[in-house]
C-alpha cells in the first residue's frame, strides 16, 4: 500500500513541476496569468472502523487554478497597445464564420488589411455604442460591434484619419485632417462573478463557462473593470524568484517520494527473501 501512496505523491510532484515550469516559461508572455496546483489528501475507512488505526492513502489533484492578480504595466507608446489596471477583460470576437466571443488581458492590438483592430489571434476588438459626448448608450452584449478604423471623416470625404486616442474610460476618439473629432465607441469590457471558472484557450484569452457565469459588459472605470492605459501592455504576473523556490520544493518532494518507493521496494524484497 505504501508503494501506491508514494506513487500518488510522485504524480502530484510531477504535476507541480509542470505547472511551475509553465509559469516560468511564460514570464515574458503579455497578459499571462500564473497557475497553482491544489492538492488534497486521500483517506478511506469503513463506518465501523476506528480512523486512529488507518493511514492515509496518498494525495490527489483537486484542480489547477489560475491566479488573476495584476501584472506589471509596461509602457510601449503605441496607442493601440492597451493595458487594464483592474480586474476587467477586453471583449473580442473571432472572424467569420464562427465569430466566437472570447475575453483577453492581452491588449496588443493592431490594424489588419481591412482596417479592423485585431488582437494577436486575429480576433476583432469590440466597441460599445456611445453618444456624441462619448457616453455609452448600451451595455448589451448584442449591441457590441467590431472596432474598425474609418478611412475618412463621415461628414467630409476629403478629410482622412490622422489620429486615434483612447482615454482611461476606453472611449475611442478619431481625429481627422480637417480637425474634426468623432467618438467611435468605447472598448467593450467584461467582468465575471467567478473569475476562476473561466476556460483558458491560450495567449491570455479565456471563454466564459457555466462555472464563471455570464459576462457583465460595461465600459472601463465602472465597478471592478478598472481603467485602460493606452500605450502600455500588462506583463505576466509571475514572480520568478517565487517560482524558483517552488521549483526546488517540488523537486525535493519528488525525490522524497521516489526514496519512499525505493524503501518500500527494499522492505518487500527483504520479506520475500525471508519467506524463501
Automatic annotation (TrEMBL):
<keyword id="KW-0975">Bacterial flagellum</keyword>
<dbReference type="Pfam" id="PF06429">
    <property type="entry name" value="Flg_bbr_C"/>
</dbReference>
<dbReference type="InterPro" id="IPR001444">
    <property type="entry name" value="Flag_bb_rod_N"/>
</dbReference>
<feature type="domain" description="Flagellar basal-body/hook protein C-terminal">
    <location>
        <begin position="229"/>
        <end position="274"/>
    </location>
</feature>
<comment type="function">
    <text>A flexible structure which links the flagellar filament to the drive apparatus in the basal body.</text>
</comment>
<dbReference type="GO" id="GO:0071978">
    <property type="term" value="P:bacterial-type flagellum-dependent swarming motility"/>
</dbReference>
<comment type="similarity">
    <text>Belongs to the flagella basal body rod proteins family.</text>
</comment>
<dbReference type="InterPro" id="IPR010930">
    <property type="entry name" value="Flg_bb/hook_C_dom"/>
</dbReference>
<feature type="domain" description="Flagellar hook protein FlgE/F/G-like D1">
    <location>
        <begin position="83"/>
        <end position="174"/>
    </location>
</feature>
<dbReference type="GO" id="GO:0005829">
    <property type="term" value="C:cytosol"/>
</dbReference>
<feature type="domain" description="Flagellar basal body rod protein N-terminal">
    <location>
        <begin position="5"/>
        <end position="33"/>
    </location>
</feature>
<keyword id="KW-0966">Cell projection</keyword>
<keyword id="KW-0282">Flagellum</keyword>
<dbReference type="Pfam" id="PF00460">
    <property type="entry name" value="Flg_bb_rod"/>
</dbReference>
<dbReference type="InterPro" id="IPR020013">
    <property type="entry name" value="Flagellar_FlgE/F/G"/>
</dbReference>
<dbReference type="GO" id="GO:0009425">
    <property type="term" value="C:bacterial-type flagellum basal body"/>
</dbReference>
<protein>
    <recommendedName>
        <fullName>Flagellar hook protein FlgE</fullName>
    </recommendedName>
</protein>
<dbReference type="InterPro" id="IPR019776">
    <property type="entry name" value="Flagellar_basal_body_rod_CS"/>
</dbReference>
<dbReference type="InterPro" id="IPR053967">
    <property type="entry name" value="LlgE_F_G-like_D1"/>
</dbReference>
<dbReference type="Pfam" id="PF22692">
    <property type="entry name" value="LlgE_F_G_D1"/>
</dbReference>
<dbReference type="GO" id="GO:0009424">
    <property type="term" value="C:bacterial-type flagellum hook"/>
</dbReference>
<dbReference type="InterPro" id="IPR037925">
    <property type="entry name" value="FlgE/F/G-like"/>
</dbReference>
<keyword id="KW-0969">Cilium</keyword>
